[in-house]
Amino acid sequence: WQGPKPVKDVVDFMNKNYPPGFSYADFAPMFKAELFDPDEWAKCLSDSGAKYVVLTSKHHEGFTNWPSKYSWNWNSMDTGPHRDLVGGLANAVRNYSDMHFGLYYSLFEWFHPLFLQDKANKFASQDYVSDVMLPQLYELVNNYKPELIWSDGDGEANDAYWNSTEFLAWLYNESPVKGTVITNDRWGSGDHCMHGGFFTCHDRFNPGKLFPHKYENAMTVQKSSWGYIRNTDINGYLTIEELLYELVSTVSTGGNLLMNVGPTHDGRIMPIFQERLLQIGSWLKINGEAIYKTKPWKFQKDSINQDVWYTMQQPADSGMRYGDVIYAIILSWPGNFNLQMGDVAASNQTEVTLLGYPNPLNFIMKGSGIQGINVTLPHLPPNTPLQWAWTLKIGPVFVY
Q1: Is residue 135 within a helix (H) or strand (E), and if so which, with residue range?
Q2: DSSP annotation of 265
Q3: Which residues, at least 6 apart from 218, have a Cβ–Cβ distance to it below 8 Å?
Q4: 77 phi and psi angles, rounded to 5 deg
């Protein structure tokens, strides 16, 4: 609408619904967050089974959700909500739960004159970095002590311009969170998928196979946006089945899932987002042992059944070993109740159970039993809590 590539539908909407000369800054007084209850947010997020939370402290427009000394009159204390949103959620998360608190921060700003000046100078100058970006990052870490810094908006310049190494050296060696903090890989062009505590590579990164470095699949419940879109219908949101595919395939291949929900301008998490969060939480109450503190197995997705993904309790060594306990997470229940898996090597001592179901399951070893089993799944009652993505616990098994 006001950037270098305005979208016609957005321009038409603004012209139709807002007065002439309306600017982006004029939205700030409308952002009141009057219904923001950080305790409610913390409870909902904790009930989702999340182990860490990442709040947007500042996005690309430069508005800070804390009272930054380096963003005069363009922060949540001076205008709009007139409160410290970052501090409110940080306190609630720490007081209510054992979740780790992290902060997203955009290095650049679309409209900041100092950034635009540095850009015009082909990033030979660093006035924006020295006067705005670095002071804000130091301010965030010292005031709120986040255990995760999720950097973004770095792609127009390399890490030398952002002075990323200076900040990260301080963060890991001198800051108040030096012993606990982790960071991602967005600290300059060329750094993505190359340098960082964990890699994000690009938005919605899900490699579908074992990845050599710890990664995070940062994705959105609303299919096309990181924010809240008022005119989205039900088809614009991922189903619980689609979300569980993202969770299971991500963990199986060595990643974490960062599931984004966009709040409203008055500070609410909408019911459709709450429902998805609570559905994930109810699933994890039963199946969490196949997700939390697990490792990728030798196989990630079964070779003959594309609806089965594996995790394991301990990392597999090379060569033949007997004793591993693995989890096979089934994304589609077979209509004949016969589940075939090609990559599980069992023995007469192997036991197969369905998490949330009381009795062991019957299975048949294929051929000599070296590799592959068929499992007979139970007929579940109509009121079962086992509704989506079912987990088999299998062990001991061979690794070969």
Answers
A1: helix 134-144
A2: T
A3: 200, 203, 204, 205, 258, 260
A4: -90, -40
Residue 399 predicted with pLDDT over 90: no
Residues 85-108: what's their mean pLDDT?
Answer: 97
Beta strands per DSSP E along 170-272: 182-183, 215-220, 255-260
For 123-132, the pLDDT digits (tens) are: 999 999 999 9
For 138, phi then psi, to 5°, come to -60, -40
Using alpha carbons, list the distances in angstroms from residue 142 to 2, 64, 94, 174, 235: 34, 16, 16, 11, 42
Q: What letter represents residue 28's amino acid?
A: A
In the sheet that 363-365 helps form, which strands lie side by side, from edge to edge? Answer: 338-341, 373-376, 363-365
Q: C-alpha angle with apex 267: 264 to 268, nearest 5 degrees? A: 70
Tokens for 168, please give them: 């990260």
Nearest to 167 by CA among 147, 187, 185: 187
Q: Measured between alpha carbons, how far is 156 from 283 in angstroms, rounded to an integer?
A: 40
pLDDT of 199 above 90: yes
DSSP labels for 74-104? Answer: SBTTTSTT-S-HHHHHHHHHHHH-S-EEEEE
Enumerate residues 6+ apart whose C-beta is below 8 A from 312: 294, 295, 296, 297, 324, 325, 326, 327
pLDDT of residue 313: 86
Unique residue bearing structure tokens 């990442």: 54
Spatial distance between the Cα atoms of 226 and 228, rounded to a whole number of angstroms: 7
* Residue 101 amino acid letter: F
What whole-number distance in Å separates Cα of residue 21 and Cα of residue 381?
A: 61
- Structural contact between residues 153 and 170, judged by C-beta atoms closer than 8 angstroms: no
DSSP class of residue 264 equals P
- Tens digit of each residue's pLDDT (9 = 90 or more) over 351-374: 999 999 999 999 999 865 468 999
Query: Cα(195)–Cα(218) distance, rounded to whole angstroms?
Result: 17
pLDDT of amino acid 371? 81
SS3 state of residue 68: coil
Please tell me the predicted confidence (pLDDT) of residue 3: 80
Residues 170-181 have pLDDT tens digits of: 999 999 999 999
Query: Is the Cβ–Cβ distance between 129 and 164 less than 8 Å?
Result: no
Q: Omega into 396 within 30° of 0, i.e. cis?
A: yes
